[in-house]
Amino acid sequence: MRSCPACGTEYTDKAVVCSDCQASLVDGPAEATPDSSVEFVRWERVYGPPDQVAALMLQGVLEAEEIPVRVEASTMAAYGALRSSLKADSWGALLVPAERAEEATRLIEEYLQGIDADPPPSDDTDANA
Ligand SMILES: [Zn+2]
After folding, report:
1. Which are the contacts of 90, defined by CB distance < 8 A and separation ≥ 6?
2. Is residue 94 a contact partner of residue 71, using CB atoms and an 8 Å limit?
3. Quick count: other Cβ atoms within 10 Å of Cβ 84?
4. How far is the CA of 99 from the centre of ligand 1 (A)?
């Protein structure tokens, strides 16, 4: 018997990863191998990108700072018909671990301000000075 260290679901010996949480299974029942090293991440929504391009761009910005990012589209194929009734005002959501949410929010704000601001055309000459 094998079991998932994260959720405790038991599997046959043929199973390798948990089908629910993709964690590597361990030998034996879950009770016999308590694994406190498994971290449960609490994800917090930090931004609602207007479209997928913005979502992926900001995901790149945050991942460059080594912040794990989850992108969730509010328009899922199976639920597309529900979208209007959910009053979705954005394409989806960016989620980061709660302890990085403040940092992520600041990075996103800085990034968006950088887009809105008219970049000074003298960037190149500054670098040469
Ligand atoms: Zn599991």
Report:
1. 48, 49, 50, 74
2. yes
3. 8
4. 23
Which domain covers residue 17, as residue numbers?
A: 1-33
Q: Is the pTM of this model over 0.85?
A: no
Domain count along the chain:
2
Distance 1 CA to ligand 1 centre (A): 14
pLDDT of residue 85: 44
Q: Do 25 and 62 have their domain in common?
A: no
DSSP string, 85-123: GGT--SSEEEEEEGGGHHHHHHHHHHHHHHHHS---TTH
Is the pLDDT score of 38 beyond 80?
no
- CB contact at 8 A, 67 and 11: no
Residue 68 domain-assigned (yes or no): yes
